[in-house]
Design goal:
Number of helices: 15
Number of domains: 3
CATH superfamily of the largest domain: ANL, N-terminal domain
Shape: globular
CATH architecture of the largest domain: 3-Layer(aba) Sandwich
Structural class: alpha/beta
CATH class of the largest domain: Alpha Beta
CATH topology of the largest domain: Rossmann fold
């Protein structure tokens, strides 16, 4: 069936991909590891590991999991760590042992951690030493029996200090000791197929307790192939250098940076603490970076860091933005500095994640999430489940080989987001233009209703973000006696002379009256998730 977006595909992009090109992700990564064996696979704090070293170390860790801990196919193994050398080695070891990796945010609160470990029924966890204090608070209330502790200096041996393991952790095993022990053990290759689970990727839990999206090997193989087919020759096999500053436990960096660029033979430069922008810029300066991925706030932060604009961007092939809307003002500035616009894409944990992306052959910025990836169908539907016409707003519903199997042990939640004809309902409101490009208007729950009119925060935020003197902003709805709700904007200044009157005057010039914020509040910084998403819900407590 022909789709309007087919005409927008770059010439090299197929309408369909083969989601079964590899029977599982492990086979895909093993093939790449052998092909690019002498290439540097990962770099962290200046320490490096080649592809052959990663394969060898992960084999030893997998052998330890199988022989010492009895991990068998389907067992959930949690990995709670920031971007550090232990992460990709532990990950590949878990997958090679047949485990289902449960990705855990190392900044979780004890309550969040306890819920996730118990919900996923985890007995084994690989944890960063700096997160053991949180684990110690709740480990007695979980089913955890095996704790493997990884430190920042593991596998790079540069003498880097790492937080000590909390004394509340009983009988921890050092990650390096586990690898050493596994080197003398037999490793048994596990038979994996496309339907087997590879990750439990927990959602942000913005509507309640977080849920584990069950992602299969086929889901990830499909999304890697979709990304590869869209990028085409923009991927330089065995030559790319990708900077990974967004967390590898997040589905964006996990699929694009970690898995895809391993398949492509690239060098992955891991940034452990992207909040230290000067150090981040210093690390970037050491590499001929060809690919960068990030969220809008990360791009904006780099652009406002002294020294970043002085870097050499001649090797930069493209930059991808996701996780949240990329603002035109930020992309325009990024192009001014680097020579390239940010290529915006869209996806979710439940979709492995990419659903749409802007064509790689186009150098402009459309302010859109792009067009569906090959083998992906998108249907915009109204509250009655009927498809809307081009130009009309509707909930973005998607079908494709990258869509999750469902929520872990939660058939009710799965049923709530899946339609009878097999589409996943994202909860995002979008419009499609006549050419097949999609634009996200906002999430259903973020919509503000002013005197019966729908107001979407993204629109207001985009206009204010374009102002001189604005570093970043976020908009929410607040109760109002006359209109039911009103828009309130929180603004972080980059120029102290910026006034509330100036912001309001700007909004009056570019927004319909009912969209103009009634309340404007200046704050020092916006609350954000570890991935860099602005947390609007927390602003409601300000």
């Amino acid at each position: 069936m022909s789709k309007p977006w087919f005409d927008q595909y770059d010439p090299w992009v197929p309408h369909e991909i083969d989601a079964d090109a590899y029977s599982n992700v492990v086979d895909m990564l093993m093939e790449a590891g052998e092909r690019f064996s002498d290439n540097v696979a990962f770099s962290n704090f200046g320490g490096t590991k080649t592809y052959s070293e990663v394969l060898s170390l992960s084999r030893d860790f997998a052998a330890y999991l199988q022989n010492n801990l009895g991990i068998v196919k389907g067992d959930r193994v949690a990995l709670m760590a920031p971007n550090m050398m232990a992460f990709p080695v532990a990950m590949l070891g878990i997958l090679r042992a047949g485990g289902v990796q449960v990705n855990v945010n190392p900044m979780y609160t004890p309550r969040e951690l306890q819920h996730q470990l118990n919900d996923a029924d985890v007995e084994t966890i690989v944890v960063f030493s700096g997160s053991t204090e949180t684990l110690a608070e709740v480990v007695g209330e979980t089913g955890i029996r095996n704790i493997i502790v990884a430190s920042l200096d593991d596998l790079i041996d540069l003498g880097l200090p790492s937080p000590p393991t909390n004394p509340g952790i009983k009988d921890p095993v050092a990650f390096l000791d586990a690898i050493s022990a596994g080197s003398d053990m037999e490793f048994s290759k596990v038979d994996l197929n496309g339907d087997d689970l590879i990750y439990l990727q927990y959602t942000g839990g913005t509507t309640g307790l977080s849920k584990g999206a069950m992602l299969t090997h086929r889901n990830l193989v499909a999304n890697i192939m979709q990304f590869e087919s869209c990028a085409g020759d923009f991927i330089r096999l065995g030559e790319d250098v990708v900077v990974t500053a967004i967390p590898m436990y997040h589905i964006f960096a996990l699929m694009v940076n970690t898995l895809s660029y391993f398949k492509f033979g690239g060098t992955n430069v891991m940034i452990t603490n992207p909040r230290d922008m000067p150090a981040f810029v210093a690390e970037w300066s050491k590499w001929k970076v060809t690919v960068f991925t990030g969220v809008n706030t990360l791009y904006n932060g780099l652009l406002h860091t002294p020294g970043f604009a002085d870097l050499d961007f001649s090797s930069l092939g493209f930059s991808v933005g996701g996780g949240a809307a990329v603002q035109k003002a930020v992309s325009d500035k990024w192009k001014e500095v680097t020579g390239k616009h940010i290529k915006e894409g869209y996806g979710l944990s439940e979709t492995s994640p990419i659903l749409t992306i802007n064509p790689f052959g186009s150098g402009d910025f459309k302010g859109a999430i792009g067009i569906p990836a090959p083998s992906t169908d998108i249907s915009l539907r109204n509250d009655q489940g009927k498809e809307v016409l081009p130009g009309e707003r509707g909930e973005l519903c998607a079908k494709g080989p990258q869509v999750m199997k469902g929520y872990w042990r939660n058939e009710e939640a799965t049923a709530e987001v899946m339609t009878d004809d097999g589409y996943f309902c994202t909860g995002d409101i979008a419009v499609m233009d006549e050419t097949g490009f999609f634009r996200i208007v906002d999430r259903k729950k973020d919509m503000i209703i002013v005197s019966g009119f729908n107001v979407f925060p993204n629109e207001i935020e985009a206009e204010i973000a374009a102002m001189d003197g604005v570093l970043e902003c976020a908009c929410i709805g607040v109760p109002h006696e006359k209109t039911g709700e009103a828009a309130k904007v929180f603004v972080v200044k980059s120029d102290e002379s910026l006034t509330e009157e100036a912001v309001r005057a700007h909004c009056k010039d570019c927004l319909t009256g009912y969209k103009v914020p009634r309340h404007i509040e200046f704050i020092d910084e916006l609350p954000k998730s570890t991935v860099g998403k602005i947390l609007r819900r927390e602003l409601r407590d300000y």
